[in-house]
Specification:
Blueprint: E1 4-13, E2 18-20, E3 28-41, E4 44-58, H1 59-68, E5 74-87, E6 93-106
Parallel strand pairs: 4-6
Antiparallel strand pairs: 1-3, 1-5, 2-3, 3-4, 5-6
């Protein structure tokens, strides 16, 4: 039985992403996502408790988060809730969870977003339109209506 569950969080960065790179390890970024819960009570929308999730991402994604997102940004994040136990500062066993980010982006529902594409040197070139087994229809004129 796994202690990981797929999840999507929609909220705001509650802390600035903190990027760390240890000796011989891959980049890691830690931050918190605040998720505001709202409910309809007697026909009126009311705010409920805010839930804060500790989030972590690794590798290239960690570097992109650290350079692209800031505290307060509205985000949509997909990943998994990772439940486990650990030893706290008092030496006692405690249980907790973290949100392991697999993909994240700004929420366009509440803010304007401009996309700036980056060229990755380690990525394979994108396939050209029409490069598959189908004929290249990009060069053909569109039918008139």
């Amino acid at each position: 039985m796994s202690n990981n569950f797929d999840a999507t969080l929609v909220g705001n960065l509650a802390t600035a992403p903190a990027l760390t790179i240890g000796d011989g390890t891959q980049p890691r970024v830690n931050f918190r996502i605040a998720v505001n819960d709202r409910a309809q009570v007697d026909g009126q929308w009311v705010d409920r408790d805010v839930v804060f999730h500790d989030a972590v991402a690794w590798g290239h994604l960690a570097e992109r988060i650290a350079t692209s997102l800031s505290k307060g940004d509205a985000v949509v994040a997909a990943g998994e809730l990772d439940f486990g136990s650990y030893e706290n500062a008092a030496g006692e066993r405690a249980q907790g969870w973290s949100f392991v980010v697999k993909a994240i982006g700004p929420s366009v529902a509440v803010q304007d977003v401009t996309i700036a594409r980056i060229q990755r040197h380690d990525a394979a070139p994108a396939p050209r339109v029409g490069s598959g087994t189908q004929p290249d229809r990009a060069a053909e004129p569109s039918p008139s209506l």
